[in-house]
Amino acid sequence: MTTQPSVRLPVTVVTGFLGAGKTTLLRELLLHGGQRLAVLVNEFGEVGLDGALLRSCGFCPEEEIGSRLVELTNGCLCCTVQDDFLPTMQQLLERADQLDGILVETSGLALPEPLLAALGWPEIRSRTWVNGVVTVVDGAALAQGSVVADPAALEAQRLADPSLDHLTAIDELFAEQLECADLVLVSHGDQLDAAGLERIQERVTPLVRPGTPLLPMERGGIDPALVLGLAAKQPDGSAAEHLSADDHPHDGDNHDHHDHTHVAMESVALEWNGELERSSLEAAIRRLCQEKGIVRVKGRLWMRGKDRPLVLQAVGPRLESWFEPAPQPHAPGVELVLLGFGLDRHQLEQALIQQP
User: What is the distance between the alpha carbons of residues 7 and 3, in angstroms, rounded to a whole number?
Assistant: First the structure.
């Protein structure tokens, strides 16, 4: 297997209250995401429950379980970052050449900010990038006006962890988990009618950053590309040479992405040879994600005088970019894959490529 130490590994943080549907989502991603993933689970109280559910789902060969599923049960990660999270990440990164990404499932009481700050530490950031923070909310509870279905269970979880130094009220914690979100997934989407979904949207939208998608899901089912991104490694361990997505755009379809009980994703692949300015392209991507229902963007920009292409990854309002080795030299140009709703290829080309 070919090792590429200079290729950074995506880390996806899945947060949300106890019972919101985080573990169900993880099971679906591990089984159907088409990627080789390691998963770090943070839980306490009923020790090992989430880990056992993931361990038994058969997402990887039995002999790999010990190195691909890590359970931390000695405290909330946001309070034990230096003692638990950082050493565990370093352990997982020892086999980065055998993985496509890492999933981190936080406890129901976690504040995402300390984890994001830890991912910015030089020894971690040089080998990873933040793919996104996915906040799972309980659609059935929210439709009834509550942010959590079982407040007593959440309080029991709080009392079970002696390391907690934050006693945040439930509503405040809910707001903080949403403030960090790059993507919000609403569980129990099959139980929601249009009115219920509208109530959830009204509750959540003021708490998230502009451009953060809000999508319903049913039993953890969601297009894995929305959460994990669009590329995995080849069987020999090398990075995928070409960006890929099922390119079946429905140009001209005019859907509001908040009204999709059953998410119907569309993708458009764009490729253009010529010189583009990095800052202008990044600004255009951010603008599209905020205004045009673009959920994810993956791309590479080749610039004159640069030996390596600039990798572009966006989910909701988060845009990450860095230079990374490519299999072969390339003339100045760009290739992009965009996922969203009601995508119009001509408008996207105008906004991204044919810039003034």
Answer: 9
Residues 47-83 as b/e (b if ≥16 CB within 10 A, e otherwise) read eeebbeebbeeebbeeeeeeebbbbbbebbbbbbbee
To 5 degrees, how large is the angle CA 198–CA 199–CA 203? 115
Q: Has residue 59 got a pLDDT over 90?
A: no
Q: For the chain, how many helices (H) and strands (E)?
A: 13, 12
Which of 100, 104, 130 minimizes the C-alpha distance to 40?
A: 104
Which one has a higher pLDDT value, 208 or 40?
A: 208
* Order of strands, sheet of 9-15, starting from the edge strand that comes earlier in the sequence: 69-72, 37-42, 101-105, 9-15, 128-138, 183-187, 214-216
From residue 136, give the alpha-carbon distance in Å to each of 3, 31, 103, 182: 34, 19, 14, 11
Question: Residue 322 CB: number of other CB atoms within 10 A?
Answer: 12
CA distances 195 to 162, 178, 198, 221, 349, Å, are: 41, 21, 5, 22, 35
Q: What is the DSSP annotation of 193-227?
A: -HHHHHHHHHHHGGGS-TT--EEE-BTTB--HHHH
**What is the model's pTM?**
0.79
Taking the C-alpha atoms of residue 353 and residue 272, their distance in angstroms, rounded to an integer, is 7
Which pLDDT score, from 0 to 100, does residue 233 have?
42
Asked whether the beta carbons of 167 and 111 are under 8 A apart, the reply is no
pLDDT in tens, 196-222: 899 999 999 999 999 999 999 987 788
* Phi/psi at 339 (5° precision): -115, 140
- Single out the residue of 142, 144, 217, 153 nearest to residue 177, CA to CA: 142
pLDDT band at 96 (very low <50, low <70, confident <90, very high): confident
Please provide residue 249's backbone torsions phi and psi, each rounded to the nearest 5 degrees: -70, 145
326 — pLDDT class (breaks 50, 70, 90): confident
Dig out the tokens for 34 from the structure.
């088409």
